[in-house]
Every structure is written in structure tokens, then in C-alpha cells.
Amino acid sequence: MIWIARWLIRYLMLYIAGENLAVELVYQKAMSCTIFMANQQSVLSVILCQIPQKLKFFYWLENLEAANTSGIVALPGAIALLEQLNTFAIPWAIVTSGIVPIAFNRSKAPGLPEPKHWVTIERVEHGKPQPDPFLLGAQLLNLPAEACIEVEDAQAGIYFALDAGCEVIAVHAPAGMPRREEISLIIKSFTELNISKLNNQGIVTVTQR
User: Fold this and answer.
1) What is this structure's pTM?
2) Which class for 150: exposed (0-12), middle (13-18), buried (19 or more C-beta within 10 A)?
3) 124 lies in a domain?
4) Are both 91 and 155 inside the same structural domain?
5) Which residues neighbour 183 within 8 Å (Cβ) at sequence distance 6 or greater?
6) Which backbone phi and psi does 169 adopt, to 5 degrees?
7) Range of the domain at 63
């Protein structure tokens, strides 16, 4: 499971400044394992026994965050929207800056339909604020970014999606926020969205009720 080691290196370098030497040693040691015969736990044990204590803390904290799904509920209309996309065979993906365990657990907890495509931080070389995650999402959907609609409730995510060239539907975009005029549609709830698809033409229309 090489991706575990590579993710951990990227993650640690993101959060811990000045630990490049220690991280490089961890990477070299992990890569010297017989990866094809090792399971996830054995690779992690090699890594965790050599990294500084504070790095272990961040790994523990990430696992804690992934396990904590208490109180997570779907926004009104979110489940119905995704089910409608599936009914019309409209491809969709989840794009997030979280890691796989966090993204999966927090999507599963409120009962969201599972997407065919996931884009998490492990899959991109440059995460936010670069538009790479959204560009990869479009690639997985086999569409140009300009043909994709990003539904977003965070201002930072709105900017990154716009930078990628996506059309953006924003939930709760405050008045006066930069680039607000570039947003295609601003809603207060997913229940406001109406989706239709022209038969045999593949044209999807999203309107506001």
C-alpha cells in the first residue's frame, strides 16, 4: 500500500515545518519495505516507530477526526439531489481536501449516496488553493472543467472552482464577497435546485425553483 507512505509524507510536510530530514528518513525506510507483501498496518508501524512524537500526534489526531462522525447530518435536499443525479445517470464526484478516511466516513454517516469518483488530498500533487482537485474531478468525469458544475458552501472552495473554470452553484455566498458576480447561481438550500436532462442529448439543465 504505497499510497499510505506517500500520503503520510505529504501530510507531515504540510503540517510540520522543519522536519524535512526526519520525514525523508521515514520515506526511505518505508520504501525499503517489501511493499508488495506488506499490509497497511505493517507499513504504518515502520513509519510510526521512527517519526518524532509530535508527528505521531498529528497522525493520531487525523484518525480521531475520521472516527468522529457524531452530529454529522446531510443538508436539506442534498440526498435527494444526489439521488436525482443518479436517476438521470448524470456523473458526479466528491472533491475534498480531506483524506480518504475522513471523506468516506463523513459522507457515509449522513447517508449520502456513494459517488463513483472521489478526489481526496492523496490524489493530487497540489491541493487547495490550487485548482488541481477540481481539474482532476473533471478528468475523472471525462468532461472539461467548463462543463462541470461545482456545488460549494465554502468561500475558499468557490474561488478554487472558479479558478478551475467550473460553473459554480454557491450555498450562502455572502453579499460583498470577492468574485461573487462570477457565481452562476446562489442558493440557500439544495431544495431550491431543479435538475432536468434532455433525453438522448446529454444536456443537463439546473435551475432555481
Assistant:
1) 0.67
2) buried
3) yes
4) yes
5) 158, 162, 168, 169, 170, 173
6) -105, 120
7) 2-67
